[in-house]
Amino acid sequence: MSQKITPYFEKANLPIVVTDKPFARGEGTSKIFQMTIEGKKPETFKVFKGVGTDVRVIDVDKGRRQVLLFVKEPKRTFTEIRRVNGQEVEVPRETSAEIKRYLAGMDERHLFISELPKAEGKINTVDDAHKLLKPREVAKKGTKPVRQGEWFFVDITPEESFLIKEKAHAALFNTALPTRGKPHTCDQYLKITDPIRGEVTFILGRVTHADHKTVEFFTWQRVYRNTEPVNPRGVHGWID
Q1: What is the overall mean pLDDT for the chain?
Q2: CA–CA distance from 62 to each of 12, 66, 78, 104, 232 (Å)?
Q3: Cα 158 from Cα 26, distance rounded (Å)
Q4: In sequence order, which residues have a C-beta less than 8 Å from that of residue 101 and are 6 or more positions away?
Q5: Nearest of 216, 197, 217 to residue 137 by alpha carbon
Q6: What is the pLDDT of residues 115-139, one digit of tens each?
Q7: Could you tell me which of 92, 114, 89 has the C-alpha nearest to residue 103?
């Protein structure tokens, strides 16, 4: 049985509206779980639980103003209407019967929603979610990374420094990191395909974003994206 989630969001000082009317458009969307963020000042979470969906908050972090949300719904097919190049396009989609978990709350200046990747073991707390979203390579580095939204920036190794010197002529200026939301724009951007590391990305200088504090680096940094699924398994308004 689905839980009353409003008190848990309020405990984290997060505004929320749980509606009995779906807000996604398309055939079959009247039954699926939906979550988005509406408004600008103030922003508010909006949730439609769907039909026969188990929706629960399994942890509240008052200090971070974040919650961990559990969602389990039946497998369903539906059509999502998206706007592509100014035109509305119907995209066939399918919900998964697997359990989905979302980290939602406040990050710096704005509310956000982040679907967590599949994971072995128990993910029961907001802290567990943060650890899961951090790439393994970043965790192994041993130094504290700088984060801006879904991006992590880590000091380069001597081997990477040598690689950059060879390829620095190919660096691009004032380039946005690839993302689904508002752009993270960096002063210098360098993508290298290395036989050992594969495709790697480095940045130098300032990285700016409308919703985040600007960060600045005076030495090249290796770039890692968080582990949030690139193609979410549910329907929600993704917010960086």
Answers
A1: 89
A2: 5, 7, 36, 12, 26
A3: 52
A4: 58, 68, 69, 70, 71, 115, 116, 123, 129
A5: 197
A6: 999 887 789 999 999 999 999 888 7
A7: 114
Task: Give residue for tokens 């040598």.
Answer: 162
Q: What is the pTM of this model?
A: 0.86
- Say if CB 125 and CB 66 are below 8 A apart: no
Domain definitions of the chain by residue range: 6-133, 137-225
Phi/psi at 155 (5° precision): -55, 140
Confidence (pLDDT) at 153: 96
Question: How buried is 157 (Cβ within 10 angstroms: 0-12 exposed, 13-18 middle, 19+ buried)?
Answer: exposed
Number of helices followed by number of strands (H, E) in the chain: 4, 16
- Distance of CA 79 to CAs 82, 150, 152, 160, 193, Å? 10, 28, 34, 45, 37
Residue 240 is predicted with a pLDDT of 33
Answer whether 227's CB lies under 8 Å from 205's CB: no
> 19 with 5: CB under 8 angstroms?
no
Alpha carbon 184 to its chain centroid, in Å, reads 13
8-state DSSP, 239: B
Q: How far apart are CA 133 and CA 153, in angstroms?
A: 14
Q: Please, which pLDDT band fits residue 237 given cuts at 50, 70 and 90?
A: very low
Contact 70, 49 (CB under 8 A): no
